Structure formats: structure tokens, C-alpha cells
Amino acid sequence: MSSLEIIIQSIYVIAAVLFIVGLKRMSSPTTARTGIVWAGIGMLMATIATFFYPGVENFALIAIAILLGTIIAGYTAKKVEMTEMPEMIALYNGMGGGAAAAIAAVELFKDHHLPVSVTTLALIGGIIGSISFTGSLIAFGKLQGMVKGTFRFKGQHQINLLLLLGTLVLSVLVVAGFDGNATLVIMVFVIALILGIAMTIPIGGGDMAVVISLYNALTGLAVGFEGYVLQNYAMIIAGTVVGAAGTLLTQLMAKAMNKTLISVLFPFGETTQASGDAVEGEMKPIEAGDAGIMMAFAQKVIIIPGYGMAVAQAQQKVWELSQLLIDRGVDVKFAIHPVAGRMPGHMNVLLAEAGVPYELIFDEDEINQEFKSCDVALVIGANDVVNPIARTDPSSEIYGMPILDADYASNVIVVKRGQGTGFSGIENVLFFLDNTRMLYGDGQAVAADLVNSIKEL
After folding, report:
1. How far apart are CA 419 and CA 309, in angstroms?
2. Residue 257: what are its φ and ψ, rounded to 5°?
3. Exposure pattern of 240-256 as b/e (b: 16+ CB <10 Å)?
4. What is the CA radius of gyration of the chain?
5. Is 384 assigned a catalytic role?
């Protein structure tokens, strides 16, 4: 290894360390911004160093690709709404998997005499990257509403298993040297791309957060494998870290929904979107003025935000409401469910954006014990994560999923556009309880009405 290569590899290692430091700092809302900056510096260092790597050619094409990627990413990052952030993550994650697969394809097509270990890792990374690419695109389509519902049929999982076995058998033939014209390599990638679609199509929209997290882990692993193929330390370390972090996050997300990863990836039977399930009782409406008075004279109010708040962009008004209550001596806290919204940390980001202090935000384990002493639980745009049926009905699709115990509060006010069901399609028993009142309307408009009613007291 020449002295120049040693310097470049050292820069790659430093860049990888910056990735790790950045990822660590992203784990807290108070340090997330600087974490992104550190990771960005690492990526900039690695990119610049690559231009000086011996054997690198086509500098003009590389520069054009970087310029186009920067323009597109910068534009979309500024334009995308917070409600569409999960879709953006799914799309960009798919691009990462596709890039890893493209690297594998180039290396396999370029040299048919690679060492067995390198060929093997290139194929594994290519297969994983291809699955992540098409799977993430389907996940993006489901969240965006471009891919409607699920598609399940008898024997579907057996077909997926055959597709997986097909990629493995063909890969073994490639490694063994039976490929004379790259046909087998092309077949490996084509089958892997089809497998990514076939795996994701039958999974329901409610499980997309887990699926996106899983594909994020797979993309990281694919990048790590291709880093070994290219002998790029930054790719090896960064890919491994992303793969490990994505795996842990996937496990946490599945646990938060009381599901196993197997049950998410291999759903059986028809979908159970039972929006018409019979529920005893009736929904009881309340006016904003009465709800405002109820909260203004309460001792403790717990606010539970959900995807509906994100859609309405109501976080600023909700925080203004909270400040008014705090000024009146009310103990205000925010309760966040791990899968509230469409991705991990979705609600935390929205509340931080609105200026809500981090010490007022509590996760499910920290806050659930306080609902029994809570005067008013304000549910704004949340649905499935507060549905008591998860504790009581073994036949329900969400049975066993840990929820926020809003129904234990003395009074529950639910801000909702209408009487529809949540993302899972299951009727929410909470809305029909005696201590629940429904405050209908757009989240931001309702929050503004609540603010005005309290100001008038």
C-alpha cells in the first residue's frame, strides 16, 4: 500500500469515527443538530479523499453525480413536510441499498477472477441491497398512498422462499465459476429485486415503520459488505454501525407493537381492517370553550400527540396552549408512544420544532403510571396507540400492543377530524367511554380555539 493510500484510508477511518460520533449525538434531541453536522463533515472528508484514490477515473461523471444529488437532496429536504418525512426516509434508504447493489454489480461485471471471499461478499451485499432497494420503494409507495392495501394469497411465503433459495443457488454457481457471460449474475440481481417487492407487498401500512427500520439495517449491511469488496474502511465501519443501529431499532419498534419481526415480515391470511366493528356506547361531542375550561381548572393535563397533529401542523398551537396552562399553574406533560406517527421519534421532532422543552416530554414507560392521577388527557391526532382494546380483546389485530393509558384519566378529550378509524382500521374503544369527549375539527384550528377560550377566562 502506497503512502497516499495509507493517508486516504486514515481519512476514511477518521470519517467513520465522525459518523459514529454523529450517530451517538443524534440519539438526543438536544444534540441531534450537532450530530448531523459531525456526520456531514465525515462524509465530506470521505468524498474528497475518494477523488485522490489511485485508479479512480471518470472525475467529471462523479462530480456531475454529486452536484445533481446535492441539488435534488437540498431541494427535497427543504420542501418536504414533516408529515412526509417517513416517506423521504424510505426513499433515500432505498437509494442507499440500490447504490450498494450497483457497486456489487460493477465489481462482478468488471472482473470475473475476483477471490472467492470477495465475490461471495459482493453477491451477499448485492442481494441485500437489491431487496432493500425495491422493498423501500414499495414502503414509500404505501406511505404515500400510491400502493393501496395489501396483496396476499395462499402459498405466497413459499414463493418468496423459493425466490430467496434461487438467489442463493445462483450465487453459489457464480462463486464456483460457472458464469461465463455474467448471465447468472444478472439473474441473481433480478430475482433479488423481485424478492424485495414480493416481501413488502403483503405487509400492512401499520407495520411500515418496522419495515423501513429493517430495510435501513439491510442497507447498512450491504454497504459494509461492499466496503470490504472495495477495501474502503469508511464504508465497512459506517455500514456496520448503521446495520447494527437499524437492527436494534427494528427490535425496539417491533417490541413497541408487541409483534415479532417474523409476524411483521410474514403476515398470514387476509387483512383484518375491521372498521365496522360494533362498539358499545356512542361518541359524545364537546365544544372548544367547554374543553378549554376543563383544562384551565385542572391540576394535571397530559397531552398525547399523534400523526393527526403532524398532518394539521398543530404543534405550535399545542405548545402555545400548554404555555397558557402552565402559566395558570397546571402541571402539563407530553406523552409519546414509540410508534406514534409514521417513524421513530416523529412526535419528538415535531415538539422540539415547536420549542417544547425536552423535560416535558415522556415516553410510554415513564408516563403511564401518571394517567390515574391525571385530570385531563388531551389526545390530538393519536388513535391506535391509545386504544384500550389492545388490553382487552385477544381477537384484535393490535391485542397485546403496549399503549398509553389515556382511558385511566378522569377526563379524556380527543381532537379528531371525524369519526373514522386509525391507521390499522380498528375502531377505537376509547372514543366511546363515559369519560371521553370528542372535539371535532382540524387540529390546528381546534388548538387555536382552545387557546382563545383559555385567554378569555
Report:
1. 16
2. -100, 5
3. bbbbebbbebbbebbeb
4. 25
5. yes
**Strand (E) or helix (H) holding 195:** helix 183-200
Nine cell digits for residue 64: 456531475
Torsion of CA 388, 391, 394, 398, to 10 degrees: 60
- Cell numbers for 106, please give them: 460493477
Mean pLDDT by 10 residues, the chain (457 residues): 86 91 83 90 91 85 91 88 79 93 89 81 95 93 79 84 93 80 88 94 78 91 92 87 88 77 68 50 90 95 91 91 95 90 77 89 92 95 89 82 92 84 72 93 93 91
Residue 394: partners with Cβ closer than 8 Å, 6 or more residues away: none
Among the options 277, 331, 375, 384, which is catalytic?
384
Q: What order of strands is seen across the sheet that includes strand 300-305? A: 361-363, 331-336, 300-305, 376-380, 411-416, 436-440
Report the C-alpha gap between 375 and 151 in whole angstroms: 44
CA dist 49 and 10 (Å) reads 10
Cross-strand pairs, 438: 285, 414
Instruction: Report the alpha-carbon distance of residue 340 to residue 335 in Å, rounded.
Output: 10
Burial degree of 2 (CB within 10 A; 0-12, 13-18, 19+): exposed
For the chain, the straight-line distance linking the first and the last C-alpha, in angstroms and rounded, comes to 76
- What DSSP character marks residue 412? E
